[in-house]
Amino acid sequence: MISEHTVQEAHENLENFPEDLPQENESLVALGRSLLVSFVQENITGPSLSLNRVDCDELGLEGEEPISYLIGSNYLLKATEVFYSVPSGPNSTFYLWRGRCAYIHQQTLTHAVEALMNTSIESYELALEHLEGNDKALACVEYSNLLLYYNKYEEAEQALMKAQETTKLSYSLTGKMGVRTKFQKEKKPQLVLDVDSQNLTEQETKQPESVPLDEEDIMLETPKIDEHTVESIPLVDQVILLGWVNYLLKAKPKDEINSEVIGAYLDVMLSKSLNWLVYSQALFFRSKNQFTSYRFKERSALQIQTLLDQYNDPDPPAHERLKYVFALNYPLRHWMIVELGEMFMKLGAVMSAYQEFEQVGMWEEAIECLIMGNKPNQAIKLAKERLEVLESPRILCALADVTREIVYYERAWEVSNHRYARAQRSLGKHYFGQGNLEECIQHFKQALEVNGLYPGIWFTYSCALMKLERWEEATYALQRMVRVDSSVSEGWNNLAAVYMRRNMLKEAFSAMSYGVKNDRQNWKMWENLLMLSVQIEEFPQALEAIRHLLRLDQTRLFDSQLFKIINTYARESLRVQEVFRLYTEVLRKLSSNYQIWEVYADFLAENRDHSEEFSIEKVLDAKIKACRNLMKPGWDRDPGLCEEALRLLKQLANTYNLTGSQKKKTEGRMFISNAVAKIQSTLGREVEIKF
C-alpha cells in the first residue's frame, strides 16, 4: 500500500541520498519506493508535488534518450541507483519494486531497450514466486502490461489468466436484447459482459468526469439492455478486467469485432466507479477504442483533454490515486499528450497538436506537426532555434527529416558519441530507398548493435540481405525480428522463404505455421503453407490450409494432383471421414470443376471398404458430374477436350458395368453414345467404348 507518508519522505531522501546504500532489504525498498512513487505521482497521477524539471541524460540506455516532458527525473534516477546497483535481496518486495522501477524507467524512454526488458521480466518472475492473494493478482496484471509492452502476447495472456485464477474471477460475453439508439423501437441482441466475482466490494472514491455524447447524437452512451443489472465489481477484479482490455487493444486485430468486444468490457467498467484512477483508465481505453469511429472521434479527443486537465484536481488525495497505479499501466503525461496530439492530427487540427507539444517543450513532436501542416520553413526555423539552445541529436534528426540533408543524421550520430541509434536507422532507410543496399546494411547493423528491439528495422535489414542473396545473414535477422515481435506475420513469411531458399523445408514449415496464426486472412501465406505441408507430408496442416483457403475464396492451387495426394494420405492414415468432409466443402465451392469431381469419384471408389456410405451409386454420380462439367457448350469443337471427354467416358462406362441396375445402364448407354458421336465427328476417327 502506498501512503501519503511514503511520498512526503521522498524530498528528504533525495536531499540526503546516502553515499553508501543500506544493505538491509527493507531499508532499500523504503528508500527506492519513496523516490519512485514521488516520480510517479508527479508524472502520472498528480496532483503535482512541484518538483523541478531536471534533464537527466543518464536515464538514457542503448541509444534511446529520455522523453521530452519529464518532471523530477532526478527522483527516478536515484531510484534506479537503489534498485539496479544493489545485489538482490531475499524479500520478494524488493524484486517487485525493482521490476516496477525498471518498467517506469522504460516508459520514460523513446523505445524499448533490452537491458530494461530483461531486468523487469526477471524481477517480476522472482516476485511472483512468493506473492499470494490479491497482491499476487495485481502483480500478475502488472506483469501482463509489461509483457504486452515488449510484444510478448502469449505470456501476457497467461499472466492475466493466473490473475483471474487467484481471485476466482469469472466472466463471459453474451448477447441480450436491447437498443443502441434513442429512437430504436425494435430490440436486437447486444453484446454484454457478465461478471461473477468473489471479492469484497470496496468503498467508492471521487469519480472523474466522463465527456458525454452530443445531445443531438442519436446513439445511447451504452446499450439499454433488458433485465441486465450490473452489480458492483471489486477493485481488484476491475483492474484485472482492464488488464484484459489492454491485452485486446494491443494483441488483437484492430477491427470492428474486437472494438465491440472491448466496448462490452468498458460498458461494465464505466457503469460503476469505485476508484478515480480505475475509472480514468477505463475512460482512456474508451477514447482509444472509439477513436476509430467517425461518430466518436471528437469526443475521444475531448476526453483525453479532460483526463489531462483533472491532473491537478485536489480530490481525491494522492494515496488514493496511487493505490493501483502500477497495475493499471496509466500512461505518463508525456504519452497522454502525445496521444492527444496524434488525435488532433488525425482530426486535421495539426496546429492544435503543435500548440499542445510546444506548451510542454516537446520540440521534436512540435516540428513533426509543422512538417505535417505543410509548414517546412517554420519547422526548419524552430529546429535551428532549438539547436542554438542545445545541439540535441533528436532535433538534428528532426531537422534532417524536414530538409532531407543526411549530414544532420551524421552529425546527430557524432554528437551522441555513437549512441543515438535513431540517426543510423534513418541513414539506413535513406540508402535502402536509394537502392544502395551495401551502405544501407552497414547503417542498420550499427543501429541494431546499439538497440536490437526494433522489429521493423530487422525486417528492412533482412530485405536488403535477401536482395543480395546473403541467405544466412537474412535468416539471423529474421529470427531476431520474430523474437522481438512474434505477431508480425510478414517476418514469419520471409523467414520461411529464406529457409526454403536454403532447402530447410521443415524449418520453413514451422515458420509459416507461426505466420498464419498471426494473420489468418492472408491467403498467400496459407497457399505457401499448403505447398510446404504437401512437400514434407504434414497432411493435417495441409487439410487445415485447404479449409482456410476455401473460406478466403482462394482456390487457384486446387487441382487434381493435389487431391490425388490427399486421397493417398486418407487411405494410408485411415482419416477417410475427415477427407470426405473436406471434399464436401471443396465441391460446394468448386462444383463446376470436372477434375475435382473425377478425383472425388476415385476417392469414393478407393475407400468403399472403409465406409458403407461410399456406395457405387455415389461413385457413379460423381463420375457423371465430372463428365457433364467437362461438356460445357462448345466442348465438342475442341479436339483436346474431346480426348479428355473420351478418357472420362471410358471410366464412366466401367463404373456403369459395376452397377446392378439395368435402368441406369440404359441411361448410361444413351448418354455415352450421344457423346461418342460428337467426339468421332470432331476427331475424325472411330471411337469404341466397351459397355
Characteristic key phrases:
65% helix; three-stranded antiparallel beta sheet; elongated; 691 residues
Overview of this protein structure:
The chain is mainly α. It is 65% helix and 4% strand. It is built from 33 helices and three strands. The chain has helices at residues 4-15, 25-45, 73-85, 92-107, 114-128, 133-149, 153-167, 235-251, 256-271, 276-290, 297-309, 318-321, 325-328, 333-346, 350-359, 363-372, 376-389, 393-403, 407-415, 421-434, 437-450, 455-467, 471-484, 489-501, 505-518, 523-535, 539-551, 560-573, 576-589, 594-606, 616-630, 639-658, 662-683, and strands at 170-181, 188-196, 219-225. The chain has a three-stranded antiparallel beta sheet, covered by helices on one side. Strand 1 and strand 2 (188-196) form a beta hairpin. Helix 16 packs antiparallel against helix 17 (376-389) and helix 16 (363-372) runs parallel beside helix 18. The longest helix has 22 residues, at 662-683. The termini are far apart.
